Amino acid sequence: MRYSVVIPMRDEEGNVEPMWREVTDVMRVLGEPYELIFVDDGSADRTYERLVSLYERDAHVHVLRLSRNFGQTAALMAGFDFAEGEIVIAMDGDLQYDPRDIPRLVQKLREGYDLVSGWRWKRSDAWLTRRLPSRVANWLAAQLSGVPLKDFGSTFKAYRREAIARIRLYGEQHRFIPALISQWCDRLVEIPVTVRPRRWGRSKYGLSRTLRVAFDLVTLAFLLRYLAHPVRLFGSWGAIALLVGLGLDGYLLEEKVLRHVSIMEAHGPLFLLSILFALTGLQLISLGLIGEIISRTYYESQRKPIYSIREVCSRRNRGRPGEGETTEQARRLA
After folding, report:
1. What is the pLDDT of residue 284?
2. Given this model, what pLDDT does residue 34 score?
3. pLDDT value, residue 160
4. φ/ψ bin of 319: left (φ > 0), alpha (ψ from -120 to 50), beta (otherwise)
5. What pLDDT sits at residue 128?
6. Cα four-point dihedral sign 212, 215, 217, 220
7. Are the C-beta atoms of 141 and 176 separated by less than 8 Å?
8. How many CA atoms lie within 13 A of 17 on its CB side?
9. Which residues contact 52 (CB under 8 A, 6 or more apart)?
10. Residues of the chain whose pLDDT is less than 50?
11. Which residues contact 17 (CB under 8 A, 6 or more apart)?
12. pLDDT of amino acid 333
């Protein structure tokens, strides 16, 4: 399989048919084997039924139905895990991205890049609630990760399979895939893509996600810098606190031994502060060591998915969930 196109959808029944038609037209022009993986992220409308209709008509279509709404990160991860293509392309299912930009992404991969990200250079979203928070988040993500992208939040990306297979996504980390991939690959590039007005339905995003993005940025900074060696973060601050505490204790010891000063009467608060600094330092260092142990466990543990698939419509037969299924006999996963 050459190409896998992963398209998460939630309550997009009006976009299912035109999305499939536009993407199919583009993939046929590329002229190589492809598959379309639609992931229904707990839709409350008839999105799944319409996707099943596509599956019945088009052998290139696979449909994953999550057991509930897990969010876009989990939906993308489900699609990535299911994909078999050498090149994996991801895009939203609301038709705001133009599928005709897919060949441009693919062409950049052929030039040797591991990831090509679409840059929404001309957006029509509300400035205060969408574009301004996005610019701030993108600037912070670029500074924290060292990856000079202008649009981390764009879902429209093309990946080499070996690049996307290296990462596991949690929370809402799909926005920071380039930063996570940069730990193993440095051949990343960004190209401008067309963004169109939404034709059907309404946006799932708003100002309320800004706080979540802020917490995600903090998590991103920790993952990139200290995940493998958390003791470097906690140990550094712990060492500083411990040295301050020991320094104060040394001063108080000098006062006691050389000048015969009553420590509790003359320097009671300072004495308590020195103990506080010393204990805090020891606790931070211990926390760093515990983090090192947890980090090792994390790297050596089995992978645990962040999603649950209710049904799979696929013609594959490769010994995995959805093996040999038809529409009428889609299995419920245990």
Report:
1. 87
2. 97
3. 94
4. left
5. 66
6. negative
7. yes
8. 7
9. 63, 313, 327
10. 318-334
11. 50, 54
12. 33
